[in-house]
What we know:
It comes from marine sediment metagenome. The chain is α/β, with parallel strands linked by helices. The protein is built from 5 helices and 8 strands, in the order ββαβαβαβαβαββ. The chain has a single domain, classed as TIM Barrel (Alpha-Beta Barrel). The protein is globular.
Amino acid sequence: MGRNNCRVVLTDRCNLNCSFCCMKEPDICNSFKWQTALWIAQQRYDEIGITGGEPLLELERLVQFICLIKYFNKKAKVYLYTNGILLTSETAAVLKVAGLDGINWSPKAKPTSEEKNLITFVHVCLMPIRLLIQDEMTDDDMLEFVMSNGMQIKQWTLGDCSDMELEDRFRIDWSNK
């Protein structure tokens, strides 16, 4: 039996405006209300990816949703898709306590030394990080950084959203809880 995955759009809001963003495609997700978040949490998904927009813009709701998922489905692996700009060690610790299993970090530029330190801290001390790297950002320095920290890397091409076709997708509509 294949994997049973779900991707949930927590918010459409984002702190960036990337021209290649897959979320700009119309009708990529089915809209739903807060009670549907409860329904999703009660399903037996193997993995649930929480994405956006930028989910860290809705930190309180993000934590609540992770807790809800883990309450009903302790075996589910819950991953956050983020551009990482708003991620701090404190935020990562809160997300870990809530039950987050890992972070898919998609930096929009090569990480600075400070960002590399944060990535390393979160990966080593809290949870796995998989860097989603654009083809044009991959170089020997980036590969060395990822491999020396035991992280996973997934290269992708701008505008490639093909992996999203294999998952159930939902969008949370917070306007009418």
